[in-house]
Specification:
about 260 residues, alpha/beta, Rossmann fold, nine-stranded mixed sheet, two-stranded antiparallel sheet, 11 strands, about 30% helix
Length: about 260
Amino acid sequence: MKTLVLVKQVPNTDSPFRINSAGTWVDESNLTYGLNNYDRYALEETLRLKDAGKATEVVALTVGPERAASALRTCLATGADRAVHIKDDALAAADPLSVARVIVAAIKDEGFSLILCGLQADDDNYMQIGPFVARLLDRPCATAAMSLELREGTMRVERELENNRLQIVDLTLPSVVTVQTGINEPRYASLKGIMAAKKKEIKVLALADLKLSASEIAASAGRFRTVHLATPPKGKGAEMLAGPADAIAKELVKRIKEKTGVI
């Protein structure tokens, strides 16, 4: 069984985030980047399938600029067999549906039985790529997976729902699954894995290689744009209580009782 994991390079959470002058996104000049956290869990699930002898190959794929190759190298060092990097200047402003179309064009002849990706990206939180890819491929899809169990020709998925509820669904393979954080404990790349990654293939594709035109991407992206981005408004100033912990606790209880009447 061939498996594919879709990954994205995103800004690291400890980067200095400032809104750009246009007010449409963050200023990227001082950001550092790494592998999307949700995708680490998706990668780990594919690697566990391979470790168990249930997957013959793990392929990592990303759509992004030149710097996104480092996310693929992380996947290769962790255990993926090969990688695909789709990069093209026309994809800089691509909307989620366009990204999904590009992915499908790149993998349509690969014969992947299972496609995994993180539930969402840490930067935009759209949660759309997995379901879009599934729809374009006409495959069953389950989101927010908390556990996976490969059966004969099917994948049993335990999904996270609202209010701490779970749903169990059986998907006929080939299928697409997005995974939630906490589904496993992602491994780290070993020194041996890092050295081995240098010899693994990263196939680079442009839109022309996929027989897609920049005008198609631009037309779709034109229907999807960020109108405005702003920081949350500042609330009233906070009062800091000082002193011994027991005294602070008593004072805090007193104030809650006076202001809310709850206690």
